[in-house]
Design goal:
Distance between the termini: 90 Å
Number of strands: 0
Shape: rod-shaped
Oligomer: single chain
Order of helices and strands: H
Number of helices: 1
Length: about 60
């Protein structure tokens, strides 16, 4: 019966690679969903700030 060795720690297992790839995809999907909404928030905040600056000048 051949002796089995545990996988070397320097090489990730298939499951580790798969879970890492899925985590990266999940992070990309979250970023793709969050960034446009965040940009809208920033734009709205900029408009509000400009309105307040105009009110202060009057």
């Amino acid at each position: 019966m051949p002796q089995t060795h545990p996988p070397s720690p320097s090489y990730p297992t298939f499951d580790q690679l798969r879970s890492r790839r899925l985590a990266e995809r999940r992070d990309v999907a979250i970023a793709a969903a969050v960034v446009p909404a965040f940009n809208d928030e920033i734009r709205e905040f900029g408009r509000t700030a400009l309105k307040w600056e105009a009110v202060k000048m009057v």
